[in-house]
Amino acid sequence: MSGATRALATQVLVINRHMQAVHITTARRAFVLLWTDIARALDSTWVAHTFDAWAERDSAPHEATVGTSRGPIAVPRVVQLVTYDRMPRATLRLTRRNIFLRDGHTCQYCGRRATPRDLNLDHVMPRSRGGPMSWDNVVCSCRACNLRKGGRTPPEANMRLLKKPVRPRWSPILALAFAPGRPPEWEPFLANLQGARELAALWADAEAAGALHAELRAEALAETG
What we know:
single chain, alpha+beta, two-stranded antiparallel ribbon
């Protein structure tokens, strides 16, 4: 991959008019948003620049650049939409993968972390007794705990959930914004993001970060595709 191609693939945080993070895009797409006057590029002091102003700006030594007929242009790390003032609805599909992501690939009974192949889904209120397939009734469970619980409720099996299952408040796309090594320019816009604490916890296990990144990217593509 050439340097220019790599620079254009750089992840850029998209914020709305009210300075709230709404999406992650590529530098290539960010430049299109700037060129068509849909967005402004933010510098390190949060000053917004049009495409022309950004192109004339001197890039800092640490900034990636792309070559143009005007000379090198810095890749913005944050762009702000000019008119968009909403927060996109977090529509996370109820799937096996997303339940594992929500629960951090951790059995919600014994606390054991495992790979997806060693985990099951468990209905807190068993399906045989009318328990629905819903965010608040399905949890990640290891095989041993799943067998031990069987068709009983946790109290009946003398088992306790680590936490109450709820619908996640984040989307896969914005979850990627919390990956280790994220640009420091993103931090001010992530702290107050809905579900920020949950998202930070997802990445707490550095050992699993690579697999988590791949899963979130796959889910984000499914969400936008």
